[in-house]
Amino acid sequence: MTQSSTPVCVVTGSASGIGAASALRFAQAGWSVAIGNFDDSTRDAAHAVEAACRDAGAQTLVFDADVGNDAHCRRAMDAVASRWQRIDALINCAGTTRVIPHNAFDQIDDLEFERVYRVNLIGLYQMTRAAVPLLRESATMAHASGAKRSTSVVNISSLAGLNGTGSSIAYAASKGAVNTLTVSLARNLAPHIRVNAIAPGMVDEGLLLRVLEPHAYDGVLARMTDAAPLKRVSMPSEIADLAWFLAAQAPAITGQVIAAENGLLLNGG
């Protein structure tokens, strides 16, 4: 089969939040987009994202994957290979958390750590590993044609991984591990594949919206807005724009964790 001439972006966790915004951002830039769906509970939302991407003129593919399951990751990459025979960017957005106070040691155990790490860290690694052959092949073919263009992995981390805050201590630890994994992958996948991470602070319409009751979410949103020096929180589209820049417009950037947190690090988070 002939490789598609259109660049391809794979986005995990695409049914909502940053993942959905990232899929649409790449679609609007003229890329084909593979949209990662978790299960039946998110299917309608994933297909709504697909419809928006198609309205933007993109070719699309929806794939089901629990990224914590290595077989699902490999099956997803096989589907992308069958459709387009290339991957130019992988945006790792799939994530999970529960809101547990960091000092509530009796409420968090090894099973919760393992659950969070299975998705946020191991799943990210497994999806990246499954994508590497196609990412490497796409970069090699670009170099052979004289384009000298690298392919890219962008990991969605969190401010929690930089300052130990966030929805739970397990979540913060998992995102700190994502930051370290990003650097290790960047070193070992160079020169053809660049790997970077984005560490957002509070993102409206993001993961917390799915795990908190509305009144609790509104309280967190107000507190984070007030705490930020810029007196705002981010929107998913802002993080998607940054993911697009890292993948498509930043050939010299790899191994970086870029904080996008409205200045929270300036006052200790």
Tell me the Rg in angstroms: 18 Å
Q: What fraction, in percent, of the residue positions are helical?
A: 40-55%
CATH topology: Rossmann fold
Derived structural class: alpha/beta
N- to C-terminal distance = 50 Å
Taken as a percent bin, the fraction of beta residues is 5-15%
Largest sheet: 7 strands, parallel
CATH superfamily: NAD(P)-binding Rossmann-like Domain
Give a short overview.
With 269 residues, the protein is α/β, with parallel strands linked by helices. It is 50% helix and 14% strand.
What can you see in these coordinates?
The chain has 269 residues and is of the alpha/beta class. The protein has a single domain, classed as NAD(P)-binding Rossmann-like Domain (Rossmann fold, 3-Layer(aba) Sandwich). Helix content is 50%, strand content 14%. It contains nine helices and seven strands. It has helices at residues 17-28, 40-55, 70-84, 110-144, 160-163, 169-189, 207-211, 214-227, 236-248, and strands spanning 8-11, 32-37, 60-64, 89-92, 151-156, 193-200, 257-260. The protein has a seven-stranded parallel β-sheet with strand order 3-2-1-4-5-6-7, sandwiched between helices. Helix 2 links the parallel strand 2 (32-37) and strand 3 (60-64). Helix 1 (17-28) packs parallel to helix 2, helix 3 (70-84) packs parallel to helix 4 and helix 4 (110-144) runs parallel beside helix 6. The longest helix is centred in the middle third of the chain and has 35 residues, at 110-144. It is globular, with a radius of gyration of 18 Å. The protein starts with 7 loop residues before the first strand and ends in a 9-residue tail after the last strand. The model has no long low-confidence stretch (mean pLDDT 95).
